[in-house]
Specification:
Layout lengths: L1 H16 L5 H23 L5 H21 L3 H20 L3
């Protein structure tokens, strides 16, 4: 859940700062967005569940996360989001379903 919230907030922040950045950075973010879109759609199009779909999404998602945490303005909010992300990672790492 925190991953989706951070991604949505990152896309809003990226939209706000998109035309303020250099052309190369804009092209890089567009390429990362299309990589993320294609790999997330390939997860739904392929009937077999494989971990490689999530691994291909990991690189763009980490860049988007880093962008959000660098350019977020309300410190208390992104600190809480980071704490929720950390807690959810620990929870799902050690939980046995």
């Amino acid at each position: 859940m925190p991953v989706i919230v951070i991604l949505v907030l990152c896309f809003f922040k990226l939209q706000q700062n998109f035309f303020k950045s250099y052309v190369q950075i804009r092209k890089t973010f567009q390429l990362l967005f299309f990589i993320f879109l294609i790999t997330s759609l390939s997860f739904y199009l392929n009937s077999e569940f494989r971990l490689s779909h999530f691994l291909l999404c990991a690189v763009p998602v980490t860049v988007f996360f880093a962008y959000y945490f660098l350019y977020a303005t309300k410190r208390w909010f992104y600190e809480i989001l980071y704490l929720l992300l950390f807690i959810s990672i620990i929870y799902f790492q050690f939980n046995k379903f």
